[in-house]
């Protein structure tokens, strides 16, 4: 249901927003009205309602045939330099309310392969995206959604080509951004670097404001790079995808239908940031979607 209007013209909307102070910019938010999800489009004045209605249009356009999912695309296990097994890492992502994950150990995909085998055996339906952190002295590249390991001993262009031939995406990794010559060059080139996405964490990337000002923004993701098997750090990737299959998640990142969220900062297209903020203004949407997916996953687990 949609409630549209000022508090004066639509008291029903105001009744669901006790204590909320409206400004002239308007407000688009979600509430649970007796178990019925409700979208509220309101503002102190008609102009504010109109601005909030624009936000609603953006939400409808972005979410048409799609849903928002949250996960982490860069983490490690004992298959490289992580402290915990792939199984523990996977269980930890689930307990941290993630919808998808990719175990990206250094120069190996074996952890993901083993996880997928265990998943098939247990019957759990959970999107595990095969990945690897391609570790070179010129850069660390997260290869996401690959169907084979990436061999060593190649230069940057050849490595990117191998990742793409394996059906994957090449994401420049690490929070402080590369200090090597090729990494600096890739950041300066942005969309023309051959990379498919860039990883942002606690520091605003040096080139990010320039990319955004020039309207040449690459796909942006944020990941924990966890080596401990824990995910308390507030760093996640949000994708807007048709479903939560690994193929749909990878396609969303490839198409730029994603946001990086790190320590309260959002990186990505303004239209997606607008939708993200609208959905987070109240937890109704996210909670309902998470509970739906959790119930579906648990129904798939084979009970001995």
Describe the overall structure.
The protein is α/β, with parallel strands linked by helices and 304 residues long. The protein has two domains: 2-64, no CATH class; 68-268, Metal-dependent hydrolases (TIM Barrel). 36% of the residues lie in helices and 20% in strands. It is built from ten helices and 13 strands. It has helices at residues 11-15, 46-63, 86-95, 110-122, 156-165, 181-189, 208-213, 246-254, 270-280, 284-300, and strands spanning 2-4, 27-33, 36-42, 67-72, 100-101, 131-136, 139-144, 169-172, 197-199, 219-221, 235-241, 258-262, 265-267. The strands form three sheets. The protein has a five-stranded mixed sheet, sandwiched between helices. The protein has a five-stranded mixed sheet with strand order 6-7-8-9-10. α7 links the parallel β9 (197-199) and β10 (219-221).
Quickly count the domains: 2
Give the strand line-up of the largest sheet. 5-4-11-12-13
The dominant shape is globular
pLDDT < 50 stretches: none
What's this entry about, in short?
The protein has 304 residues and is an alpha/beta fold. The protein has 2 domains: 63 residues, no CATH class; 201 residues, TIM Barrel, CATH 3.20.20.140.
């Amino acid at each position: 249901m949609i409630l549209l209007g000022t508090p004066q013209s639509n008291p029903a909307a105001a009744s669901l927003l006790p204590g909320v102070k409206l400004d002239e910019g308007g407000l688009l938010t979600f509430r649970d009205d007796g178990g019925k999800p409700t979208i509220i489009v309101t503002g102190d004045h008609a102009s504010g309602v109109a601005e909030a209605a624009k936000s609603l249009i953006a939400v409808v356009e972005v979410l048409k045939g799609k849903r928002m999912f949250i996960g982490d695309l860069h983490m490690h296990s004992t298959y490289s330099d992580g402290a915990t097994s792939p199984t523990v890492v996977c269980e930890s992502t689930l307990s941290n309310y993630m919808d998808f994950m990719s175990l990206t150990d250094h120069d190996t995909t074996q952890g993901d392969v083993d996880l997928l085998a265990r998943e098939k055996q247990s019957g759990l339906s959970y999107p595990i995206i095969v990945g690897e952190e391609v570790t070179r002295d010129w850069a660390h590249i997260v290869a996401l959604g690959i169907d084979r390991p990436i061999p060593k001993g190649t230069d940057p262009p050849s490595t990117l080509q191998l990742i793409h031939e394996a059906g994957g995406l090449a994401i420049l990794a690490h929070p402080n951004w590369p200090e090597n010559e090729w990494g600096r060059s890739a950041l300066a080139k942005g969309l023309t670097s051959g990379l498919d996405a860039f990883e942002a964490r606690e520091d605003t990337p040096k080139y990010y404001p320039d990319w955004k000002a020039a309207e040449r923004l690459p796909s942006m993701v944020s990941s924990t790079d966890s080596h401990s098997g824990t995910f308390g750090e507030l760093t996640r990737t949000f994708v807007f995808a048709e479903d939560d299959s690994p193929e749909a998640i990878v396609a969303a990142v490839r198409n730029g239908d994603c946001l990086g969220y790190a320590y309260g900062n959002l990186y990505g297209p303004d239209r997606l940031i607008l939708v993200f903020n609208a959905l987070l203004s109240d937890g109704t949407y996210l909670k309902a979607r998470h509970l739906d997916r959790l119930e579906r996953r648990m129904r798939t687990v084979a009970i001995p």
